[in-house]
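Q: Is it fine to ask for two folds in a single conversation?
A: Yes, each is treated on its own. Send the first.
Q: Here.
A: Result:
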Amino acid sequence: MQDNYAKIVQDNIDKLYSNLPENLADSLSATREGEGFVFEAFGERCEIQPEGIMLGEERQTGVPGILISLYALHVQPEPCVSEPLKAFKDFPNSMPYAGAFVTHTEQILVPHVEKIQNASEHIMEQLRGQQAPADVGGDFSFMVRPLPKVVLCYIFYMADEDFPASVTCLFSNNASSFLPIDGLADVGEYTSKKILSIPDRIA
């Protein structure tokens, strides 16, 4: 499977460089360095080169590499529009992925709500985040930016006598301008896994 992922990443990069958009650096919100494009992705320095993608110190041959390459292929020149925030199910053609999105992006966080709350400042710092708008509700919430033009808003409810804990994840309004719908679902899943890794690193 990993070999298949690596081939998809390189195929996407080859496709990108075979017809490189003139304004790609601006569209990506990246800096051009030689043949490469440098920006921040999933809280780490990311560099796209003709021979592949580096995230931090690691060459990406798995899901993150696929998502970053899809972002590079699909990104549009328009700026990110954060609000009004949009539920995943409200994006066109999202229905086939909606169930998996709930399971792998939202429900995966439910057992860890208290731990996430305690680490929320570190999570926002790591993932270029900020406080969510006051009107989103929840017991606590924050926004993170896994890709330069894709913002996710996580809204958390703590368990009480009447209701179990719950988590809702919303997207910046025009996120689908920068990734295909299955890519958006996977960005949610990978970002949630990244969120879960941060409290463990600071414990």
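Q: Second one now.
A: Result:
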Amino acid sequence: MREMKDYIIRALHKHGFIKTIEDKPEGWILKSGAWSPIYINLRQLPSHPTLLYRIAGEIGLRIEEVDCDAVVGVPMTGIPIATAVGLIINKPVGWMRETNKKYGEHKLVELPEEYKRVVIVDDVITTGASKKEVIDALTEDNRECIKIFVVVDRRLEKSSDINIPVEALFTLEEIVRVIDVSVETREKLLSYIHS
């Protein structure tokens, strides 16, 4: 298990999905408005099918331990990950729209109504705000959200807004301890995480 996790982390870093201040010394401004010396962008993960398959397989192993009817992907990056997971574990897959469509059936949740107990799949959790929106939309659609599964949990503080368990393949600290960076960069990244 640990070897596979380390392999995936190194592959994500090698393919540029994980970047640090060694790549961009000024760092990044996150969606939350906070500055970060490490950036994780998994939007192009489907362009690396073997890596996507391994990640989806690891998430799938965890989801198989949960009593759920379906997997729901968070727009946009969570949708292909959820789809890969669903194919691997043979679970129905639904997804959330970013906004309610103005035509057709006007659905925000694309999943047959009979699937009530769902797990949410996404790439990264930072503040939990977008996951809270998904939980609220699914609850409003008469779904029970059992658990959230993400590839990376980069929360520096655990949000009390999310009242369901979050399980990640990797924490930010695990990533920092595995990626190939200088000792100085690793110390700066760990200092950021623990500040």
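Q: Anything structural to flag on that second result?
A: Two points. The chain has one domain: 2-194. The beta strands are 18-20, 28-29, 35-36, 38-40, 70-73, 93-96, 109-110, 117-125, 144-153, 166-171.
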